[in-house]
Each structure stands twice: as C-alpha cells, then as structure tokens.
User: Fold these one by one.
Assistant:
Number 1:
Amino acid sequence: MPREILRLGIVARSHPPATVWGGRVLRPVAVLPVPAPLAAGTVMSDIEGVQTVYLGDHALMLHHGETAHYLMNLGAARPSVWVSLDGARVHLVTPDPFEGEALAGDPERVVEAVAMPPEVCAAVAAFVAAHHAPEPFEKRKRKPASITEADPRAPRILAPDQKWGAR
Amino acid sequence: MHRIEDATDPADTGAFIAEQDVLRAQHWAGLARLMVAPPDAATLQALAAVTADDTPLGQAWGALGARAAVADPAAIGQEFFELFVGVGRGELLPYASFYLTGFLNERPLAELRRDLGALGIERAAGRHDPEDHIATLCEVMAGIASGGFVASGLGCGGAGEAGFFARHIEPWAAQFFEDLAQAPSADFYRAVAEVGALWIGIETRAFAMARAGAAAPRAAAGGRIH
C-alpha cells in the first residue's frame, strides 16, 4: 500500500484566561514544513501573556486511498492541515478534510485547520499525482434477474480448482 | 422405534422372506455399507471374495471385488474424504435434497422425514448426516426388503416399498451414481458407482414392471364396466 510520511513541526498559542477561574487552552496556529530544533513544550514567545509554544514534531501520513480527499483540500481557497490536540499533546495531523472535520465533532477535543505551507502542498500534490486512481461514480440500480447470470446453486461435482486448498 | 443401525439384520423378523428379497436386501446393505464410511480391511476382504457371473450386475460386482483385492484401506479412506467430506465440502453432496432442489435440507428432506416417521424409523444416535443421505436411504431399502422395516404404513402390500423408492431414491440416485463415476478423486468408488448405477436401474425397472402388472387387471376390469 503506497503511503508517505512527512514530519511537521506543530506550533500552538494560548491566551491568558479571561477570568480567574479559567485556564489556558492551547490552540494550533501553524505547522512548520521542517521541524524546528527545539524541545517539545518550548515557549517560543510570550507577548503580553499570549504564549506561542512549540509542541514538537508529528507525523503527517498520506495514504493512497484518500487521494480524492487531498484533491478537494488542494482545490480549496486555502489548503489546510487539520491539527488535533489533547491538552499539550498532539493527537493527529492530517491533510484529509473529512478526517479532520470528523474529529471536530468532539467538543472535548481541540481541532484547528491551519494553513498548509507551500512545501507541504507540493509534497501532497506530488503524492496525489503519483497515486491517484479516479473512481467513476456508478449509480447502482435494481435490475431483473437474467438466465445468463451464474447459477446460484453449488456445482454437483466440485472441480479440483474449486477446492479450498486451490484458492 | 427401529434404529437404522440394526435395520439390516433379517434374523430378528421371524417372517418368511422370499429369497430374492434377501438378495435385494444384501445388495442394498452392501451399497449402504460402502457409502456410509470407507470400507475397512475385513469389508475389503469380503468384497474380494465375491464371485462374478455373466450378467452386467455380476460383472460390476466382480470388477469391484477385483479392485477391493488390491486396494489399500488408507488410500480408500483418503478417497472417501475427498469425495464426501472434504474441506468446506466434498466433491459430491450425496443428499436427495441437494440433487432435487439444488440446496441442502430442503423440502425433499422434510417429505422423507414424514415417511420415515410413518415407518417408525429414526436416526441412530451419533449419526449427524441428514436422513436424505444415500447411505441412509439404502439402509432403509435394505430394511424394508429384509422385513426389518414394515412399509405398510406407506401403502398396502408392495406399494409402500415401491412408493418409498419412487419418491425418495428413483428421482436422483441414478444421477448421483453417474456423478460419482465422474468425480475427479473417484478411483475405488468408480467401481462402486458402476454397481450402484446398475442396481438403481434394475430396481427402477423391477418396480415399474410390478406396477404395470398390478395395473393391468384393474384396467381390464374397468373395460368391462363400460
């Protein structure tokens, strides 16, 4: 199965809480096409309480079965990468809009669509060009039975190539 | 209730049985023995001792005896497995329901069970094949011929036996033995198939002749009324 794994650096930002009872919530803001030489959890900047944190690098997997979804993503006004966080831990990074939006249905989870860097766009486009197999839509319809179709009954004499071990 | 396993023993009936019916019972019982399980060394020895006469059936039994004299019980066991057991299914499905409808456990099996119930026959403990297996039907025919089973529950006189044969064996058994002769793994069982096909043909013609003989006087009587 053709697949390709890119390593991306994940950057998240948290704002100071609006009330004394609230806590900080990290939200992804960017992915770096080349992981930065920083430890995960490094605070990159702190401007008036707005912290930008580097969460380390994470895999982005391209799978040949999802190339149609990648094409939709690349055809959008702004191609995106969906990043999902569990607290300060990166849960999933995907360029598949359907997978990302499915994760966004969980209110307990932080999911953001961040801009896809041009280098990642080029890698995804190259993967799609290499592995995309168009699947034409076929409307299935009920049709009357025909005598030319195969007999549903089992053969009276089982041929040697129909035996279990032969397949 | 009779049990199928002791059906083929004519000694316990005490009733007079015509000689040809004893011989018919032996034919049916022999076929049943060969179809229910692969023959062991003693059975093969008994088969090898069969003397053949000039009739086609005698020649077929002689050919089977000659094969049995040189056969290896383990090889026949493997052949039986390939033919009737198999992985998933064997090469053949020796069931009346499959031959008559294309599927197992269909209406022919239900009709057979109704008739077996009328005869007072039930499946022996430890036998898991449906009753429409060819070996079971041969055992029932052997039991009826030897007097161990009484077919009068199905019809008067010979009609019960003829009716049982016509309903449950005649429609498909000849086709089954033809298939057995053609099955890719059949070697020893090809000789069994020859015997079986000839025997089914003889029984079919004999029951047809008996039916024609019984119908003729009635037709003559009917002619006189008009």
Number 2:
Amino acid sequence: MLELQNISFHADDKDILKDISLKIDDKFVAITGPNGSGKSTLLKVIMGIITPTSGKVIFDGQDITDLPVNERANLGMSFAFQQPVRFKGLKVKDLLSIAAGKDVSKDCSYLRSVGLCPRDYLNREINDTLSGGEMKRIEIAMAAARGGKLSLFDEPEAGIDLWSFQSLIEVFENLRNITNGNILIISHQERILEIADKIIYLKDGMVDRYDESAKIMDDLNMRRRGGCDCAYGQKGVSCNG
Amino acid sequence: MDELEKRMLKEVAELDSLPVGAFNIRSNGASEARNSTANIQIESRESGDGINVYFKDGTKNESCHIPVIISKTGHKECVYNDFFVGSDCDVVIVAGCGISNCGGHDSQHDGIHTFHIGKNSKVKYIEKHYGEGTGTGKRLMNPTTVVYLEEGATMDMDTSQIAGINDTYRITKAELGANATLIMHDKILTNFDQTAKAEITVDLNGDGSVCDIVSRGVAKGESEQDVIIDISGNARCKGHAECDSIIMDKGVIVATPKLKATCVDASLIHEAAIGKIAGEQITKLMTLGLNEQEAEQKIIEGFLR
C-alpha cells in the first residue's frame, strides 16, 4: 500500500533520514524510536509536507513523490499534527466539515468518538481558548472524519494529560476496529505500541528494526518498566515524558 | 426595483423580499419603500436628506431595516439617519449600502448615523458595505457612526466592508454612560489599489461602562488600510481594543491602538498584530484536501467572519 524507496533527507548539514526503504501493508503500524531519530520528518515526507532530498514515495502503486499535500489528501491520506494549528474565526464544525466533505453540523459522531460533546464544541472557534488537550482531540476527530486509505498520526499522546490518556487509547482501539483504511502512528506509548500490528523502530535516521509488535517490544524490552506507560521509562523510574 | 437592485439588496441586507417590521429602502437617492410599525416610527427629515427613526419605550424583539442601493453611475449623496431608541428596548437595526457602478463617473454614499440609546436598552446593529461593477468610476463610501449610550444601555455593532469599495473613510464615535456596554466587530477587506481608513473613538464616561472593540483587516494587492482605535477611560471602566490584520501581496496596514486614562479606576488594554497567513495554517487545510488558493480563501473567510 505504501512503499518508501531509498528516502533520504538532509537539512542544516545533518542527515535526518538516511536511505530509508520500507513497505507498509498492515492495518495499524506504529513508528517509535528515540527523540531526534527522524520519526516526524518521515511522516511529513509521506504526507508531502517535507520534500525528501532523494528517494521515492509510492502509494497504491503510484509514485507520489512530487504530488502536493492536497493531492495526496485527495488520494486518501490524512495527517494529524503533533501540535495542532489554531485559526482565528474558523470553527470546529468548519474544519470537520471540510475534513468529512459534508456538513457535520447535525452529525457529530466524530467529536463524540474523541470524548468531546458536539453541542459544546461544534461552534467553538479553533483559537487560543481551546486547551492543548482539546486541540489534540479535535485534530484526531478531523483525521477520523477524513477517513480514507491511510491516516497518519504524529504522536497524538504528546501534551495529553494522564486523565485524558486512557480515553485516547480507547479512541485508537476504536479507530483500529472501525476504520477501513490503514493507520500509521508515531508513538512512545506502550499501550498504543501493543495494539499495533507492526512496529518500525527508527534510530539515527535509519530503520533499526521493523517487525511484529510483540516481537519488537520483547526484543527491545519495551514492556512497562517505569512508573509510566512510556516504553522508554527506565526500570522503576518514570521518564516523566 | 430591478434585478440588479434586488441582488444588491440581498448582498447588503440579506433580503429576498420586503422585510418584516419597520423598513426604509433607499435607492438612488429616493425612498423606494417604507413601513413604520406601532412601536417604530420612520419619518423623513425636514431637510430631506435622511430619516429619523423613533423606537417607543419598551419595544422588544422588533427590527428595522434601512438598506441603501446606488446603481446609477455618478450618483453622490450625503444622508443623515438619526435613531432615537427609548428605554428598555431590545431591537435589531440592519443598515448597509451597496454600490453597483458600471459607468465612468464616481458613485458615492456618505451615511451619517447617530444613535441615541435610552436607559437599559439593547441594540444589535449590523452594517454591511459592498461594491461591484466594471466601470472606471469609483465606488466610494464614507460612513460615520455616532453612538450615545445612556445608563445600562448596550450596543452590539457588527460592521463590515467585504469587497468592491475603492476608498473609504469610516468614523465611529461612542460615548458611554454608567454601566453601558459597547461591543464592536469591524471587518475590512481591501484589494487592488483600494484604501480604507477607520477611526474608532470611544469615551468611557460612566462608572461600570465597558467596551470591547475588535477590528480585523485583510489587505491584498497593493491596497492600504489605516486603523486607529482610541479609547478614553474617564471613570471606573473597562476597555479592550484588538487590532488584528493579515497582509498579502504588497498590501500595507497601519494599526494604531491608543489608550488614555483620566481615572485611576479605568482598566484599559489594547492588542495589535499584523502578519501574513501562517504557512502551517495553509498546510493544515491542504491535508484536508484544499489547494493553496482554497486554503487561503477559507482562512480569510474565517478571519473576517
């Protein structure tokens, strides 16, 4: 479904991505790895937000390396940003309607599915009055509304408080079950990694491991070790991440 | 009224047919249609250059529409409309002017609206200015709005100039008594070589008076905007001014917020920001399937809503 051929990205005298080649066909694939390993850059290359220095992106057999973001979106790709963008004047229902391709004023299952009451949020402006956690949920709702063949999520758990986190996991478990398309998600969270079919482990801009979730988690000793759900917590110590 | 005039009426006052309630429709300098109600009386001024509108005390849930249409090239007018709103009213006033100029002469409407709003009355005021036409003649509008708010009165103003006006000089002045409130949302879009100047002056004279002035502007092409918001706090009052603008192409915007306090219990705040559309906003909308131009249009549409 998605194939990356020799993708490299060079910026500021650094090799951020180094000759990455991958084939992704599974329904739910997680990308994980240390900070600075190139995860977000890779996801943005797939969506066309960043143009790779070299290499090809193939989607459903079509070379999309030179396609702009919106044309990739119209081929069935969606993208949820790690830091959602705010807009003065545009309302939640405006963006959800664009995402869904129809007026969502009366059909708000998307917001409900991320734990937000449609009545309270549809007419809210997507501006500074929304908290970071609310913005993240709305961002995920937009990706869900968009549907499509491939939904890309850039670390959806970042900036979400502990209380919201449990329901976020449920959102993704739910998305995994109801979506007809594939999900590619950057995450550090053990519970999200657990529900993935496969994990891509990036390190220093290269694919260090790419295998079934359980195998990678066991091999790299990612099971809960610290006081949090982060797969990188050290034994007995929360990583506070 | 011909099809063109009907379309302009729809554009400035969102009217498909004659409105319910009181109205005065002015077309090319003459009153095209007028209706008074039991509570709202519309009379021509003796000088013949406008109307006086009287709202009886306690008038509630009623509206008054006073749209103006100019479709003759070269037509220029200066119109005085005075509104006398009694006490304890709750009414909506919809003004607005549309100029269609397909000729070679300048068309101009200068509307001077003065509001006297009585004790504890609430007025929602909507004013939309719009221009169109392929002629070389300019479309000019210079609205002046003067508001006097008595004790406990509220004016909620929604004013906009969205397209097609070559030059405009917009003056708004307000004086607020005790516990009076003024809310104003002013929106201007300019393009090509258009110019717009807006001066908003508010005097918070009564204890407990409040104003919230939000001005949003978008300057495209080589257009220029000059916006001044000037608030004086002369009592125990709260004033907030926000001047927020987007510039595109070679547009120019000058935003000048000015605050003056003559009372130690006056609390005044201003914010001003000018910038281009954030690239990340365009990228976000492109991930939802819009192309770059559609994304820009959507962002501006929301910004000026």
